[in-house]
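An example makes the point: we let one protein speak, the chain in one-letter code, the fold tokenised, and here it is:
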Amino acid sequence: MTENKLLYALALQNVSKIGDITAKKLIQHCGSAEAVLKEKKNNLLKIDGIGSILIGDLFSKHHLIEAEQELKFIRANKIVCYYFTDEAYPEKLKHCVDGPIILFQSGNINLKQQRIISIVGTRKITTHGIAVCESLVEALTPFNPVIVSGLAYGTDITAQKAALKHNLQTIGCLAHGLNQIYPKVHKKYVVDIERHGGFFYRFLEYR
């Protein structure tokens, strides 16, 4: 993805009332995020489901200004960005209608020709549950899978710690941005996870 393409995609993503589903509809109609932001309002209003309230903030100049600052942060911190039409965008996520138009990545994630297993569960895991989860990951180790979870309390972090123990790649899929790690007590695992996989972020939120 070129920097110009990323710039306009970031700007479109910053429009408050336009989510990923609507953004994809607009991009499909206009051809690109840049074309959406440069299209005449009257033409956009002809698109089914697009109203004046939805795109009322679309043409504000501050979206591009904000996107330029985000682009500088991405360059400086070597954040990997996947556009939803890119070949490298996770294949299974392409089938989700509300998959993000841009997916942000930190770490050393490799999904090529990899078995991927998601392990999630209760936040209040029991001692027996921890043992079962750890045994499951250990049993899977000969198949060298990527263990995906959400870094949350309980099952999530148990699975990811077990993956690290057995030198498996593990990925944390986070609903927040780069400005935080939730829960904070799991920040101590970030470096190891990025060495053995990394994180996918739906939003940049770098401040």
